[in-house]
Amino acid sequence: MFNxxxxxxxxxxxxxxxxxxxxxxxxxxxxxxxxxxxIRASKAPKPGMRLRLADAIExxxxxxxxxxxxxxxxxxxxxxxxxxAYGLLPLPPYIDRPAxxxxxxxxxxxxxxxxxxVAAPTAGLHFDAAMLEKxxxxxxATAFVTLHVGAGTFQPVRVEDIAxxxxxxxxxxxxxxxxxxxxxxxxxxxxxxxxGTTSLRAxxxxxxxxxxxxxxxxxxxxxxxxxxxxxxxRLLTNFHLPKSTLLMLVSAFGGYDLMRRAxxxxxxxxxxxxxxxxAMLIEGAHEV
Length: 288
Hints:
There is one protein chain. The protein is α+β, with helices and mostly antiparallel strands. The protein has 2 domains: 8-86, Thrombin, subunit H; 121-283, QueA-like (3-Layer(aba) Sandwich), CATH 3.40.1780.10. The protein contains 7 helices and 15 strands. The chain has helices at 79-86, 103-106, 129-137, 176-187, 197-205, 245-254, 256-268; strands spanning 2-3, 5-7, 11-16, 21-29, 34-41, 50-53, 57-65, 68-73, 114-117, 144-147, 170-174, 193-195, 215-219, 234-238, 279-283. The strands form 4 sheets. A 6-stranded antiparallel β-barrel has the order 3-4-5-8-7-6. Helix 6 packs across helix 7. It is globular and about 60 Å long.
């Protein structure tokens, strides 16, 4: 099961009408004209303020929504068209360099289709066209979900009581064909393998009612140890940051003790972590 979201060029630099420098990171495209964005500036912009981004795009601050801002873009182009023309790919913060032209391909899965993510579903970066073809020849069926990865997915947990942590909501879609593929796999005695935590979160979100359902929805699901998995039985995922919601998710899926041993081995053997790092295949420590 693959997440076919496509990373958009979501980072823009610019200035306020007063001349103050700003950095905007589009977190979600709301419509052809509006988007939600994080904004870094010396002083927080106020509703009604005009911004000029990339020395090309006129934007108005509509309102503040939590730690995000709703922005109205110049209607001469759609938001996605503006971003494609003038935005920069939002590389993860631990890649300490500006985005380059080659990142447009490197930081994108080979099956990326639906634009909307601000970060790549990185487990999918391990697959190329030749590998997908080989899997098909082996009889492995493939199907797709879409979950537009938001910046909140990678935010560390900063509270002592994890029940108080709140995830940013993300948009996802489960096609009818994917629901049928899962049912077919079950009928043949096969297992469902999620490529990446985003694929898993989309599938589990769509099955909260007890069975997997197609459709478009939002999710802020926060999976921690004790969660009962309903769809996914295998998970291919990269090694994640400490104190992250993703580390809690894999601990819930594979079991805390197994994950401690896996991460201990990865550190001792100097595995590469994070977006371009190594991956592991986890058998779920549960029954679906």
